[in-house]
Amino acid sequence: MTWCSNWWWVQAHLRVAKCCLLLGKTIEAKEAYRHVGVMLLDLDPRCHPQLDMFKEKWHEGHLAVQSLESLLQKFNRYTVANDIKAALRVTEAAMAIAIGSQELRLQKVTLLLTLWYGNRWLQSGSPSGMYNMCCSEFDKVEEYCTDLVRKSASGGIISLGIKMAVLYCRALHCHNKQAFEVLQQLLRVAPTSVDVLDVKRLWELMEDVDLVAYDAFTRGNYNKAVLLYTKALTLDENHSTYNASVLGSRATTSWHSNSTTRPSKTATQPHNTTPVLLRRARCYDILKIYKESVADFDEYMAKAL
Protein backbone atom coordinates (compact mmCIF):
# COMPACT_ATOMS: atom_id res chain seq x y z
CA MET A 1 0.00 0.00 0.00
CA THR A 2 1.51 3.33 -1.04
CA TRP A 3 1.43 6.53 0.96
CA CYS A 4 -1.09 8.10 -1.42
CA SER A 5 -3.62 5.34 -0.74
CA ASN A 6 -3.12 5.28 3.04
CA TRP A 7 -5.39 7.85 4.71
CA TRP A 8 -3.54 7.36 8.01
CA TRP A 9 -0.47 8.85 6.35
CA VAL A 10 -2.42 11.89 5.20
CA GLN A 11 -3.86 12.34 8.68
CA ALA A 12 -0.35 12.24 10.19
CA HIS A 13 0.85 14.96 7.81
CA LEU A 14 -2.18 17.10 8.66
CA ARG A 15 -1.32 16.80 12.35
CA VAL A 16 2.30 17.79 11.70
CA ALA A 17 1.11 20.83 9.75
CA LYS A 18 -1.29 21.76 12.55
CA CYS A 19 1.47 21.47 15.16
CA CYS A 20 3.73 23.76 13.12
CA LEU A 21 0.89 26.27 12.86
CA LEU A 22 0.17 26.21 16.60
CA LEU A 23 3.88 26.78 17.31
CA GLY A 24 3.89 29.78 14.99
CA LYS A 25 6.35 28.21 12.54
CA THR A 26 4.81 29.69 9.41
CA ILE A 27 7.43 28.46 6.93
CA GLU A 28 7.24 24.85 8.14
CA ALA A 29 3.43 24.96 8.38
CA LYS A 30 3.10 26.40 4.88
CA GLU A 31 5.32 23.68 3.44
CA ALA A 32 3.51 20.94 5.38
CA TYR A 33 0.09 22.07 4.14
CA ARG A 34 1.44 22.34 0.59
CA HIS A 35 2.61 18.74 0.84
CA VAL A 36 -0.78 17.63 2.18
CA GLY A 37 -2.47 19.39 -0.74
CA VAL A 38 -0.37 17.36 -3.18
CA MET A 39 -1.24 14.14 -1.35
CA LEU A 40 -4.96 14.90 -1.44
CA LEU A 41 -4.85 15.21 -5.22
CA ASP A 42 -3.76 11.57 -5.45
CA LEU A 43 -6.55 10.19 -3.26
CA ASP A 44 -9.53 8.52 -4.89
CA PRO A 45 -12.80 9.74 -3.29
CA ARG A 46 -14.40 6.37 -4.04
CA CYS A 47 -11.86 4.64 -1.80
CA HIS A 48 -11.59 7.35 0.84
CA PRO A 49 -14.86 8.57 2.36
CA GLN A 50 -12.76 10.79 4.69
CA LEU A 51 -11.44 12.81 1.75
CA ASP A 52 -13.93 15.67 2.18
CA MET A 53 -13.03 15.96 5.86
CA PHE A 54 -9.30 16.04 4.99
CA LYS A 55 -9.88 18.73 2.38
CA GLU A 56 -11.82 20.82 4.89
CA LYS A 57 -9.03 20.55 7.46
CA TRP A 58 -6.44 21.36 4.81
CA HIS A 59 -8.43 24.41 3.69
CA GLU A 60 -8.85 25.69 7.26
CA GLY A 61 -5.15 25.21 7.99
CA HIS A 62 -4.08 26.84 4.75
CA LEU A 63 -6.20 29.93 5.49
CA ALA A 64 -4.88 30.07 9.06
CA VAL A 65 -1.28 30.08 7.80
CA GLN A 66 -2.09 32.91 5.40
CA SER A 67 -3.75 34.88 8.22
CA LEU A 68 -0.76 34.34 10.51
CA GLU A 69 1.66 35.45 7.80
CA SER A 70 -0.42 38.58 7.20
CA LEU A 71 -0.47 39.42 10.92
CA LEU A 72 3.29 38.99 11.23
CA GLN A 73 3.82 41.27 8.24
CA LYS A 74 1.58 43.89 9.87
CA PHE A 75 3.59 43.53 13.08
CA ASN A 76 6.79 44.29 11.20
CA ARG A 77 5.24 47.38 9.62
CA TYR A 78 3.89 48.65 12.94
CA THR A 79 7.26 48.04 14.59
CA VAL A 80 9.06 50.06 11.93
CA ALA A 81 6.48 52.83 12.40
CA ASN A 82 6.96 52.58 16.19
CA ASP A 83 3.21 52.02 16.69
CA ILE A 84 3.55 49.79 19.74
CA LYS A 85 -0.16 49.56 20.57
CA ALA A 86 -1.03 48.44 17.04
CA ALA A 87 1.85 45.94 17.14
CA LEU A 88 0.45 44.58 20.41
CA ARG A 89 -3.02 44.15 18.87
CA VAL A 90 -1.75 42.13 15.90
CA THR A 91 0.50 40.09 18.21
CA GLU A 92 -2.50 39.09 20.32
CA ALA A 93 -4.43 38.23 17.14
CA ALA A 94 -1.51 36.06 16.00
CA MET A 95 -1.41 34.36 19.40
CA ALA A 96 -5.05 33.33 18.92
CA ILE A 97 -3.88 31.31 15.90
CA ALA A 98 -0.46 30.14 17.12
CA ILE A 99 -1.44 29.42 20.72
CA GLY A 100 1.75 27.48 21.45
CA SER A 101 4.26 30.02 20.12
CA GLN A 102 6.83 30.97 22.73
CA GLU A 103 8.18 33.66 20.40
CA LEU A 104 4.79 35.39 20.33
CA ARG A 105 4.48 35.16 24.10
CA LEU A 106 7.84 36.82 24.54
CA GLN A 107 6.93 39.34 21.85
CA LYS A 108 3.81 40.31 23.80
CA VAL A 109 5.79 40.73 27.03
CA THR A 110 8.34 42.84 25.17
CA LEU A 111 5.61 45.11 23.80
CA LEU A 112 3.93 45.44 27.20
CA LEU A 113 7.26 46.35 28.78
CA THR A 114 7.93 48.81 25.97
CA LEU A 115 4.58 50.49 26.61
CA TRP A 116 5.24 50.57 30.35
CA TYR A 117 8.79 51.82 29.92
CA GLY A 118 7.80 54.44 27.36
CA ASN A 119 4.85 55.68 29.40
CA ARG A 120 7.12 56.34 32.35
CA TRP A 121 8.35 59.45 30.57
CA LEU A 122 4.99 60.78 29.38
CA GLN A 123 3.60 63.84 31.12
CA SER A 124 0.07 63.16 32.36
CA GLY A 125 -0.62 66.42 34.20
CA SER A 126 0.50 65.38 37.68
CA PRO A 127 3.03 63.04 39.34
CA SER A 128 0.21 60.86 40.67
CA GLY A 129 -1.26 60.54 37.18
CA MET A 130 2.10 59.47 35.81
CA TYR A 131 2.51 56.93 38.63
CA ASN A 132 -0.96 55.45 38.01
CA MET A 133 -0.23 55.17 34.29
CA CYS A 134 3.02 53.32 34.99
CA CYS A 135 1.36 50.93 37.43
CA SER A 136 -1.48 50.24 35.01
CA GLU A 137 0.88 49.16 32.23
CA PHE A 138 3.13 47.18 34.55
CA ASP A 139 0.12 45.41 36.08
CA LYS A 140 -0.69 44.12 32.58
CA VAL A 141 2.80 42.63 32.36
CA GLU A 142 2.49 40.98 35.77
CA GLU A 143 -1.00 39.64 35.04
CA TYR A 144 0.07 38.21 31.71
CA CYS A 145 3.17 36.53 33.15
CA THR A 146 1.16 35.03 36.02
CA ASP A 147 -1.30 33.60 33.50
CA LEU A 148 1.58 32.04 31.56
CA VAL A 149 2.89 30.34 34.69
CA ARG A 150 -0.58 28.96 35.46
CA LYS A 151 -1.18 27.55 31.96
CA SER A 152 2.21 26.48 30.66
CA ALA A 153 4.48 23.52 31.27
CA SER A 154 7.52 24.02 33.51
CA GLY A 155 10.07 23.51 30.74
CA GLY A 156 8.61 26.24 28.59
CA ILE A 157 8.32 28.58 31.56
CA ILE A 158 12.02 28.17 32.43
CA SER A 159 13.05 29.06 28.90
CA LEU A 160 10.59 31.95 28.70
CA GLY A 161 11.59 33.12 32.17
CA ILE A 162 15.23 33.42 31.13
CA LYS A 163 14.29 35.56 28.14
CA MET A 164 12.01 37.73 30.26
CA ALA A 165 14.78 38.21 32.82
CA VAL A 166 17.02 39.39 29.99
CA LEU A 167 14.36 41.95 29.05
CA TYR A 168 14.21 43.05 32.68
CA CYS A 169 17.99 43.51 32.77
CA ARG A 170 18.03 45.55 29.60
CA ALA A 171 15.20 47.74 30.86
CA LEU A 172 17.09 48.57 34.07
CA HIS A 173 20.49 48.71 32.39
CA CYS A 174 24.07 47.99 33.39
CA HIS A 175 24.45 50.93 35.80
CA ASN A 176 21.66 49.52 37.95
CA LYS A 177 22.91 47.27 40.76
CA GLN A 178 19.78 45.11 40.74
CA ALA A 179 20.05 44.51 36.99
CA PHE A 180 23.70 43.51 37.38
CA GLU A 181 22.77 40.99 40.10
CA VAL A 182 20.04 39.50 37.89
CA LEU A 183 22.53 39.16 35.03
CA GLN A 184 24.98 37.34 37.30
CA GLN A 185 22.22 34.90 38.30
CA LEU A 186 21.34 34.35 34.64
CA LEU A 187 24.97 33.62 33.83
CA ARG A 188 24.93 30.92 36.52
CA VAL A 189 21.68 29.23 35.46
CA ALA A 190 22.02 29.75 31.68
CA PRO A 191 25.74 30.26 30.91
CA THR A 192 25.32 29.30 27.25
CA SER A 193 22.19 31.35 26.50
CA VAL A 194 22.78 33.55 23.46
CA ASP A 195 20.45 36.24 24.84
CA VAL A 196 22.25 36.36 28.19
CA LEU A 197 25.70 36.44 26.59
CA ASP A 198 24.59 39.21 24.22
CA VAL A 199 23.57 41.38 27.18
CA LYS A 200 26.86 40.62 28.94
CA ARG A 201 28.88 41.61 25.87
CA LEU A 202 26.76 44.73 25.33
CA TRP A 203 27.30 45.92 28.89
CA GLU A 204 31.02 45.21 28.73
CA LEU A 205 31.25 47.24 25.51
CA MET A 206 29.31 50.10 27.10
CA GLU A 207 31.63 50.12 30.10
CA ASP A 208 34.70 50.08 27.84
CA VAL A 209 33.44 52.96 25.68
CA ASP A 210 32.52 55.00 28.77
CA LEU A 211 35.95 54.46 30.34
CA VAL A 212 37.87 55.30 27.16
CA ALA A 213 35.71 58.38 26.51
CA TYR A 214 36.15 59.62 30.08
CA ASP A 215 39.90 59.04 29.87
CA ALA A 216 40.04 61.09 26.65
CA PHE A 217 38.01 63.83 28.36
CA THR A 218 40.32 64.02 31.39
CA ARG A 219 43.35 64.22 29.07
CA GLY A 220 41.80 67.14 27.20
CA ASN A 221 41.26 65.18 23.99
CA TYR A 222 37.71 66.47 23.62
CA ASN A 223 37.25 65.64 19.95
CA LYS A 224 38.03 61.98 20.59
CA ALA A 225 35.71 61.94 23.61
CA VAL A 226 32.84 63.42 21.56
CA LEU A 227 33.34 60.76 18.88
CA LEU A 228 33.32 57.99 21.51
CA TYR A 229 30.17 59.31 23.17
CA THR A 230 28.55 59.50 19.73
CA LYS A 231 29.48 55.84 19.20
CA ALA A 232 27.98 54.99 22.60
CA LEU A 233 24.63 56.37 21.42
CA THR A 234 24.47 53.60 18.80
CA LEU A 235 24.97 50.71 21.24
CA ASP A 236 21.42 50.59 22.63
CA GLU A 237 19.35 53.05 20.62
CA ASN A 238 16.05 52.23 22.34
CA HIS A 239 17.29 52.79 25.90
CA SER A 240 16.29 56.34 26.81
CA THR A 241 17.95 56.36 30.24
CA TYR A 242 21.37 55.35 28.97
CA ASN A 243 21.23 57.61 25.93
CA ALA A 244 20.16 60.65 27.98
CA SER A 245 23.17 60.11 30.23
CA VAL A 246 25.49 59.76 27.22
CA LEU A 247 24.02 62.89 25.63
CA GLY A 248 24.79 64.78 28.83
CA SER A 249 28.40 63.59 28.80
CA ARG A 250 28.78 64.43 25.13
CA ALA A 251 27.28 67.89 25.60
CA THR A 252 29.62 68.61 28.51
CA THR A 253 32.60 67.47 26.47
CA SER A 254 31.53 69.58 23.51
CA TRP A 255 31.13 72.63 25.74
CA HIS A 256 34.69 72.18 27.06
CA SER A 257 35.93 71.76 23.50
CA ASN A 258 34.25 74.99 22.40
CA SER A 259 35.53 76.85 25.44
CA THR A 260 39.15 75.94 24.66
CA THR A 261 39.24 75.95 20.87
CA ARG A 262 36.71 78.61 19.85
CA PRO A 263 36.52 81.25 22.59
CA SER A 264 35.67 84.05 20.18
CA LYS A 265 32.49 82.28 19.05
CA THR A 266 31.24 81.54 22.56
CA ALA A 267 32.04 85.08 23.65
CA THR A 268 29.74 86.55 21.02
CA GLN A 269 26.78 84.36 22.00
CA PRO A 270 23.97 85.66 24.29
CA HIS A 271 25.04 85.75 27.91
CA ASN A 272 24.86 82.32 29.58
CA THR A 273 22.59 80.83 26.89
CA THR A 274 24.41 77.53 26.37
CA PRO A 275 25.47 76.96 30.01
CA VAL A 276 21.87 77.50 31.14
CA LEU A 277 20.61 74.98 28.60
CA LEU A 278 23.23 72.48 29.70
CA ARG A 279 22.44 72.87 33.39
CA ARG A 280 18.70 72.60 32.77
CA ALA A 281 19.20 69.49 30.63
CA ARG A 282 21.20 67.89 33.44
CA CYS A 283 18.45 68.72 35.94
CA TYR A 284 15.87 67.09 33.69
CA ASP A 285 18.18 64.07 33.42
CA ILE A 286 18.41 63.75 37.21
CA LEU A 287 14.63 64.09 37.52
CA LYS A 288 14.23 61.37 34.86
CA ILE A 289 12.26 63.74 32.61
CA TYR A 290 14.12 62.59 29.54
CA LYS A 291 11.98 64.08 26.80
CA GLU A 292 12.72 67.64 27.96
CA SER A 293 16.31 66.69 28.76
CA VAL A 294 16.98 65.46 25.23
CA ALA A 295 15.31 68.57 23.77
CA ASP A 296 17.60 70.86 25.79
CA PHE A 297 20.66 68.81 24.87
CA ASP A 298 19.74 69.04 21.19
CA GLU A 299 19.24 72.81 21.42
CA TYR A 300 22.50 73.18 23.31
CA MET A 301 24.42 71.19 20.72
CA ALA A 302 22.88 73.21 17.88
CA LYS A 303 23.95 76.49 19.50
CA ALA A 304 27.33 75.34 20.77
CA LEU A 305 28.67 73.77 17.57
TrEMBL record:
SUPFAM superfamilies documented for this protein: TPR-like
Region of interest: Disordered: 253-272
InterPro entries to which the protein is assigned, alphabetical: TPR-like_helical_dom_sf
Domain of life: Eukaryota
Residues spanning the signal sequence: 1-19
Gene3D superfamilies on file: Tetratricopeptide repeat domain (1.25.40.10)
Keywords: Signal
Listed name of the protein: ER membrane protein complex subunit 2
Organism field: Aphanomyces astaci (Crayfish plague agent)
